[in-house]
Design brief:
By secondary structure, the chain is of the alpha/beta class. It is built from twelve helices and six strands. A six-stranded mixed β-sheet has the order 3-2-1-4-5-6, with helices on both faces.
């Protein structure tokens, strides 16, 4: 192929996306014109994405997945590219989260994303911008991505959502009285929903807290369980039964030593009273 441009997937995330698109296209024995016919995009557009000259869009990614039979691979890679600040594995986790029948969450230090108010989430994103960790555009993308996650849980048959939060989550002041006050009110509202359970793991349980980092566990429609655990710089998505089962056991042990939902709401309300 005389005009074939060699790609360096290590040069940028955008180049890696383009190289992957080309790899799957060529595995089918298709030229760019063939893929264009299946995607309703021009071959010129596809060439520009493959060579990293044009950013893919969500519509493009979904169209590529349908044409190439790749499930949601290119949609996930688009989200990782678009929301470059997301940890590895998280966008794939969110894909599972959107169809889970039961969601278990443990969080330390901040309110879990699924329960965050827009103002609370925005303060966290703005802080990351101020530190130079992300750009303003990425902060906006992070906020819209969180809104998408939360919206995906509003279904005709919503999932059961069980949340255990370390006491630090409700005692850490974020965004000033107005923001944290509204956030605590949101937690109380969450606890009143018929498909939720909220527990605070108090400082008093000491060494009996079974996790020292955020943990997410999803039960899927086929009753399989997927876990997602984060460190400061890495996310780990796990489907292996043995590994997931040990996390599930630890989660149940944590629930057993945490406050009841009623006592948790009382603690939240008590903290709320101390906010002007």
């Amino acid at each position: 192929m005389v005009n074939r441009k060699e790609l360096n997937p290590d040069s940028s995330p955008q180049a890696a996306y383009g190289a992957e698109l080309r790899r799957f296209r060529e595995a089918k024995g298709w030229k760019q014109e063939d893929l264009a016919d299946h995607m309703d995009y021009s071959s010129t557009h596809i060439s520009a994405v493959e060579t990293g000259r044009k950013m893919p869009t969500l519509r493009f990614a979904r169209s590529a997945d349908r044409a190439l039979g790749t499930g949601d691979l290119f949609e996930r890679k688009y989200r990782e590219l678009k929301h470059g600040v997301l940890l590895e594995g998280f966008s794939e986790y969110v894909g599972y989260e959107g169809r889970a029948t039961e969601i278990r969450v443990f969080e330390v230090g901040i309110i879990p994303g699924l329960l965050q108010t827009p103002d609370y989430a925005r303060v966290l994103a703005d802080s990351a911008v101020h530190r130079g960790a992300i750009t303003r555009e990425q902060a906006d993308e992070r906020a819209s991505f969180l809104a998408e996650r939360q919206a995906a849980l509003v279904r005709a048959r919503p999932p059961m959502v069980l949340v255990v939060m370390d006491e630090s989550c409700i005692r850490r002041s974020v965004g000033g009285p107005g923001v944290i006050g509204a956030q605590l009110d949101r937690l109380v509202e969450f606890a009143e929903l018929p498909n939720t359970a909220l527990h605070i793991a108090p400082y008093a349980i000491g060494e009996h807290r079974t996790f020292d980092r955020p943990v997410n566990l999803l039960t899927l429609p086929d009753y399989s369980v997927v876990s997602y655990v984060e460190s400061q710089t890495q996310g780990y998505l796990e489907r292996e039964l043995v590994s997931v089962r040990s996390l599930l056991t630890a989660y149940h042990q944590l629930q057993a030593v945490s406050l009841s939902q009623a006592a948790s709401v009382d603690m939240i309300n008590e903290v709320r009273k101390g906010i002007p």
